[in-house]
Design brief:
The structure holds two protein chains of two kinds. Chain A is built from three helices and four strands. Chain B is mostly helical. Classes of the chains: A alpha+beta, B mainly alpha. At the A-B interface, strand 2, strand 3 and strand 4 of A face helix 4 of B.
Chain lengths: ~120, ~90
C-alpha cells in the first residue's frame, strides 16, 4: 500500500451538487479498488496562471489517499474521462511520510509532504 | 596601491566583493519545497517564468533538483506560469 496525493482542478462552473456527486463517484472508484481516502481538502476557487480549456479560474481540490498502485491507474482513467476535471496531478508520497502526518486533525501540518517524483500526469 | 579592499590581509588587488550565497532551504529547514506553495517557488523563477540557475540563487544541488521538479509540477497545475509574455 502506498500513500498518494492527488490534486485536481474542477471547472468553476460546476455547482455544489454536481461537485458532491463527482466526489462521491470518485470515492466509489477508490474504495472499489481497495483504496482509502485519508483526507480531502477543498482549496477553493483560485485563478490559474494561464487559461486551460478557455477557463481562467478553477476549483482546486487536494486529496490524500492510501492504496495499491493499480488503484491509481483507475483513478486517472476516471479523472481523464470526466469533462469537469480541468487538470490533475498524482504524486506518490515519500517513504518517510506516514499516514499520521496526513490525518485531518493536524490541519495546517502536512504542507511538509515531500513528494518524490514518480507519477506526473497531465490530464487534459 | 592601497585600494578600498574589504579584506586588506588577503591580496588586495581590485577584487570585487561577493557575499557568499547560501542555500535558503539548507538555512531554513521549515521552508517547504512544494508545488502547493507557489509563493516560495516564485522566488526561484525569473519574471518570465524560467527557473533560475543555482549560480544566481545559491541553492545547493540537492535542493535545486527538488525545486526544479516542484516548479514543473506547479506549472502543470497552473499555479506558476510556463511562460510570461506581453
Amino acid at each position: 500500500m502506498n500513500l498518494y496525493e492527488i490534486m485536481f482542478i474542477l471547472s468553476p462552473d460546476m455547482g455544489e451538487e454536481e461537485r458532491e456527486k463527482f466526489i462521491s463517484r470518485l470515492n466509489g472508484t477508490i474504495t472499489r479498488n481497495k483504496g482509502e481516502v485519508i483526507r480531502l481538502n477543498d482549496l477553493g476557487i483560485k485563478s490559474m496562471t494561464y487559461k486551460i480549456k478557455k477557463k481562467s479560474r478553477g476549483q482546486y481540490v487536494l486529496l490524500y489517499l492510501e492504496g495499491p498502485g493499480a488503484m491509481v491507474a483507475e483513478i486517472e482513467r476516471m479523472l481523464r474521462i470526466d469533462e469537469n476535471v480541468i487538470r490533475f496531478v498524482v504524486v506518490k508520497l515519500d517513504r518517510h511520510v506516514t499516514r499520521q502526518d496526513l490525518e485531518p486533525k493536524a490541519e495546517p501540518a502536512p504542507a511538509q509532504a515531500e513528494p518524490t517524483t514518480q507519477n506526473e500526469e497531465v490530464g487534459a | 596601491m592601497q585600494e578600498r579592499s574589504p579584506r586588506p590581509q588577503s591580496n588586495p588587488r581590485n577584487k570585487p566583493y561577493f557575499k557568499r550565497k547560501t542555500c535558503r532551504f539548507c538555512e531554513d529547514k521549515a521552508l517547504p519545497i512544494d508545488y502547493k506553495a507557489p509563493h516560495v517557488l516564485k522566488d526561484f523563477i525569473t519574471e518570465r517564468g524560467k527557473i533560475l540557475p543555482r549560480r544566481i540563487t545559491g541553492t545547493c544541488s540537492f535542493h535545486q533538483k527538488k525545486l526544479a521538479a516542484e516548479i514543473k509540477r506547479a506549472r502543470i497545475m497552473a499555479l506558476l506560469p510556463f511562460t510570461v509574455h506581453d
